[in-house]
Amino acid sequence: MTKFLEVKNLSVSFPTEDGLVKASNDVSYSVDLGKTLAIVGESGSGKSVSNLAIMGLHNRATTQISGSAFLNLDEGPIDVITAPEETVRRLRGKVMSMIFQDPMSALHPYFSVGNQIAEAWSLYNEGSKRDGMKRAAEMLDLVGIPSAADRVKDYPHQFSGGMRQRVMIAMALVNNPKLLIADEPTTALDVTVQSQILKLIQEIQKEFNMAVILITHDLGVVAEVADNVCVMYGGKIVETSAIDEIFYRSQHPYTTALLDSIPRVDKFGSHRLKAISGQPPSLIGLPKGCSFAPRCQFVSHVAGSRCTTEDPELTEKAKDHFARCFLSTEQIHTLTGRSVTA
To answer: Which residue ranges does the record assign to the ABC transporter domain (predicted)?
Structure first.
């Protein structure tokens, strides 16, 4: 069945004096209207880079991009990777929008938030400046900012971190896009505000039937909002499946390590949080074989030296559950203490 967004074999690289930075390597995923795909991984794993390519925000003169990313629109599919830049520009902000990681950097300090939202609206709608400000007030009200009609005149520094993030959401949704990419929308926010922002995105998604891509480094954040999850490491997807499969039947040591680093209120005092030893690999010089092998505690359980000499393929371990690992399903669950049937 055709999904609204279908990404296939997307690779993004940046030539530098030190070598070619392979930021995103052969990435494939899809997301449909009304569904949420979470892309999870440590900083530098390639999460944001691949989605910036979909938005057409890389400089094509200095970036090597291959693969495809089709938006299946009513008028026909468009590959935003190979489409002319002007075509992608017309889609950006109208069909697809992005919430950026740091609202204080993304919002212009010299213009009121109302003017910035109205500008985004005026790109695709005819009307006066008053009409734009009226629409801006409606959007601020939609995202839960009190006294929206008055606050459209305020500047970014007059809002708290959580409120600035709500302004960014209002700006991204002002033209009713079909695809929303949220890049670390809860970073630097306290736990209560994080929950409010995620709940807001869920509510608006249901109201407008949007496809949502949620980029985050925290698996705990996606537990209640995502339908499917892609776990990225070293520029590649190392595991992908439905949310319950990832949480209860993970098939990759890296995913398991991320899960073990999340505090569990139902296991208070019964186990110690585990850190992942080592550092993520340099995307200029990835290690031979599995990129996670230098940090993996289960390398010795794979026969021979396959983990350090062969790059595992993304294979189907269970129905619609794919992972890059030489360990069998039974081995990974025995080693991690997770039940195959749980």
So the answer is: 5-259
Q: Tell me which amino acid residue 21 is.
A: V
CA distances, 139 to each of 36, 103, 132, 168, 170 (Å): 22, 16, 11, 10, 5
Residue range of the domain that includes 261: 248-336
At residue 268, the pLDDT reads 58
Q: How confident is the model at residue 2 (pLDDT cuts 50, 70, 90)?
A: confident
Is 107:156 a contact under the CB 8 Å cutoff?
Answer: yes
For residue 125, count CB atoms less than 10 angstroms from its CB and return exposed for 0-12, middle for 13-18, buried for 19 or more: middle
Inside any domain, residue 284: yes
Query: Which of these, 151, 146, 90, 76, lies nearest to 117 by C-alpha position?
Result: 151
In a domain, 137, yes or no: yes
Q: Assess if residue 16 is contained within a domain.
A: no
Residue 179 maps to a domain: no
Give the SS3 label for residue 126.
coil
**How many structural domains compose the chain?**
2
Kindly report, residue by residue over 105-128, the tens digit of the pLDDT: 899 999 999 999 999 999 999 999
Residue 86's contacts (CB-CB under 8 Å, 6 or more residues apart) are none
